[in-house]
């Protein structure tokens, strides 16, 4: 069995300003840095074997803070990247209400396939290990959806720097 501690990155300037970040890098704001520190302190004594992160800056920065007491390197993967929002990237979220999705937005099916590949990677590469992985709101929802075999709209939204524990069999 592999234990997955799935974490959402800390709050960013774009989160606070309601800007659709998607696969842009993003920068943690002071609140996001503090959230990551609080998560680090909660997980300080957790026996974490592997630290993973999305390859986007906001997730890597969150993971670096959480990793401080563990003294291990961080492995990055594009499998954990946030949903590609295509032409919606960089737009004020309230302005998107009732707008049809442009054709370049990553589909739920594509995200769930990435989620399946990520979970399979953990099962194969890290059996019996505890893996902390820092990802993003929608992508983490896709991972939880695949794990629990539930539609994404039945998965509760993760808050910034929130941790969800899963045991992969």
Main sheet attributes: strand count, strand direction, barrel closure: 5 strands, mixed
Shape verdict: globular
Helix coverage percent of residues? 25-40%
Major sheet: arrangement of strands: 3-2-4-1-5
What structural category arises from helix and sheet content?
A: alpha/beta
Radius of gyration: 15 Å
CA(first)-CA(last) distance: 5 Å
* Order of secondary-structure elements: EHHEHEHEHE
Task: Note the total helix count.
Answer: 5
Task: Please indicate the percent range of residues in DSSP E strands (runs of 2 or more).
Answer: 15-25%
Number of strands: 5
- Average of the residue pLDDT scores: 97
Outline the structure in words:
- The chain is of the alpha/beta class and 169 residues long.
- Helices cover 34% and strands 17% of the residues.
- The chain is built from five helices and five strands; from the N terminus they run E-H-H-E-H-E-H-E-H-E.
- The chain has helices at residues 13-16, 30-42, 57-67, 108-125, 137-148, and strands spanning 2-8, 50-54, 74-77, 130-135, 163-168.
- It has a five-stranded mixed β-sheet with strand order 3-2-4-1-5.
- Helix 3 links the parallel strand 2 and strand 3.
- The N and C termini lie close together (5 Å).
- The mean pLDDT is 97.
